[in-house]
Design brief:
Layout lengths: L9 E2 H7 L3 E3 L5 E2 L1 E3 L9 E4 L12 H6 L4 E4 L1 H4 L7 E3 L3 H12 L8 E6 L4 H14 L4 E4 L3 E4 L2 E4 L7 H13 L4 E5 L2 H5 L8 E6 L7 H4 L2 H9 L7 E7 L3 H9 L4 E5 L7 E9 L2 E7 L5 E6 L4 H16 L4 H7 L11 E2 L7 E5 L4 H13 L5 E5 L10 H11 L2 E4 L9 H8 L9 E3 L3 H11 L5 E5 L6 E4 L2 E4 L2 H12 L1
Parallel strand pairs: 4-5, 5-6, 6-7, 8-12, 8-13, 9-12, 13-14, 14-15, 15-16, 20-24, 21-22, 21-24, 22-23
Antiparallel strand pairs: 1-3, 2-7, 9-10, 10-11, 16-17, 17-18, 19-20, 25-26
Helix pairs in contact: 4-6, 5-11, 13-14, 14-15, 16-17
Length: 494
């Protein structure tokens, strides 16, 4: 990740003090950067050595020091493994890393109009739409998310939905340095729980929805909700924008200490709501009522009810940020969804072909419902579940696949270290598969089968991987892009 050109210098004494941590070694040592991976260390860095599930970051301290690290932040256990440089010892080094990172770069997110969007589904689309509106309105903006990271016109690959705290703050400082006016980013529940956003502050935080996902990490839905809810406090933000069509959104709106701006597709008492949505084959004409009676109307190229939820939230935040409603209305026809989200593959075929990232039960249901809106013929769907992830959602995703499609094809996603057949066994558990359901382990073959089953007017939907360009099998990543494979299957059929 890029770092700002501006030079930052802090003594280890001041770094330890801001984190309320213990310091051993030369207090006058000067730190000029932060790194969490020993491979990314630059001369003068503070190396952040965190405890992990399989290894302790302190095990890599010697390498980091050899590469130029001048001090190390870690816990008490890690401190015993470090020699030759000052050591900052914290009871909670993850939290300390967040606090230090924001302070080190002079709290760059406060100098931008920063927006953080969280929720199970919709984060990527909301942030993409909002970034598009802000950029088209003449505001140079940064974007941090699952698909990509943008600094103005520069596009970078994203390693995770929300970066580690040192990278997040360095990115924000770089955006500030390059005169970005806005930062729009996705905030994952993992990032909140693992303190990656500690020290950050947003002008607006937004909540899309909550449904079963990540229970391998959070254990229960209440724990999952509690992690999301932490973001909605004055420590992290000034204003909350909450979708009250979601039951957890209603709960969050009632308990947050932040002022709330509500959005709803159905409830006309919400601060922002739809007056009308008139669908056609290209998308829809929408009329949106907002704060103070504002009316925004225009044509959009979006499909699926949930995408109108995402649009409504993006429009509400754009207006709140100061963009003229007239400008927002003029921009609506040019907005596009995020890559791999109901993304269409068009090669002149006589049926609709879509790719979507849906990887939770609710997302599968939403996407298949959207597909149903787009055809009066068959919905043919391909779905896999990722390995080494929440196993409890697999049979529910299988149920949603069968319930929402006319032809259901179960296949592999990213098995990772798991046996693909075992994952598929979990997916079909409790289901009685009929002649319109198939289990095909090889994802490429499954996609080809879906295309081979398509008749004129049908809708083929490939679910689970979306924008991803690789498939991980037995820990090895292979090149694989659903969009390319779908296009190849269509071409071979022609």
């Amino acid at each position: 990740m890029p770092r700002p050109i501006e030079e930052f210098k802090r003594t280890v004494e001041s770094v330890a003090a801001i984190a309320n941590a213990t310091l051993t070694g030369d207090i006058a040592t000067v730190v000029t950067g932060l790194s969490l991976s020993s491979k990314d260390v630059q001369e003068g860095d503070l190396f952040i050595a965190l405890p992990g599930e399989n290894a302790h970051g302190a095990d890599f301290a010697a390498d980091a020091i050899a590469r130029g690290a001048v001090a190390v932040l870690t816990d008490l256990i890690g401190s015993t493994k470090i020699h030759g440089v000052p050591v900052i010892i914290s009871d909670n080094p993850r939290r300390a890393a967040g606090v230090i990172s924001a302070w080190f770069y002079s709290e760059p997110m406060r100098d931008l109009y920063s927006v953080g969007v969280t929720g199970t589904n919709g984060k990527t689309t909301v942030t993409t739409l909002l970034h598009q509106i802000m950029s088209a309105a003449g505001r140079d903006s940064g974007l941090i998310g699952t698909v990509e990271t943008r600094i103005g016109s520069e596009i970078l690959a994203s390693k995770r939905t929300t970066p580690e705290s040192n990278d997040l703050q360095a990115l924000s400082a770089t955006m500030r340095e390059r005169h970005m006016r806005n930062l729009v980013m996705e905030v994952s529940s993992h990032a909140i729980a693992l303190e990656r956003i500690r020290g950050s502050h947003f002008a607006v935080v937004a909540f899309t929805n909550l449904s079963q996902d990540h229970l391998d990490f959070h254990k229960t839905m209440e724990d999952y909700f509690a992690a999301k809810a932490k973001l909605f406090s004055f420590e992290f933000a000034d204003l909350a924008v909450i979708n009250i069509d979601d039951a957890y959104g209603v709960k969050l709106a009632a308990q947050t200490e932040l002022p709330v701006m509500s959005v709803s597709r159905h409830d006309t008492t919400a601060t922002w709501h739809f007056v009308s949505i008139s669908h056609d084959y290209m998308g829809a004409h929408v009329a949106i009522r907002g704060s103070g009676g504002i009316l925004i109307e225009g044509k959009v190229q979006l499909h699926g009810g949930y995408n109108f939820d995402n649009l409504l939230m993006a429009v509400a935040i754009a207006n709140e940020s100061g963009i003229d409603p007239i400008d927002i209305a003029a921009l609506l026809p040019n907005l596009t969804g995020a890559a791999g989200r109901l993304e269409s593959v068009r090669l002149g075929q006589n049926f609709t072909a879509l790719v979507d990232y849906a990887h939770s039960p609710d997302a599968v249901a939403r996407v298949l419902s959207a597909a149903r809106e787009m055809t009066d013929k068959k919905v043919i769907a391909v779905l896999g579940c990722g390995g080494d992830r929440d196993k409890t959602k697999r049979p529910i995703m299988g149920q949603e696949l069968v319930a929402g499609s006319d032809v259901s094809i179960f296949t592999s996603d990213n098995p990772r270290s798991e046996n693909p057949e075992s994952i598929l066994k979990d997916m079909v558990s409790g289901l009685t598969l009929g002649e319109n359901s198939s289990v095909v382990v090889d994802r490429r073959e499954a996609i080809a089968l879906a295309v081979a089953n398509a008749l004129p007017g049908d809708c083929v939907v490939i679910l689970g991987k979306g924008h991803e360009t690789g498939q991980e099998i037995s820990g090895v990543k292979h090149a694989f892009d659903d969009r390319i494979e779908l296009a190849r299957a269509i071409e071979e059929l022609a």
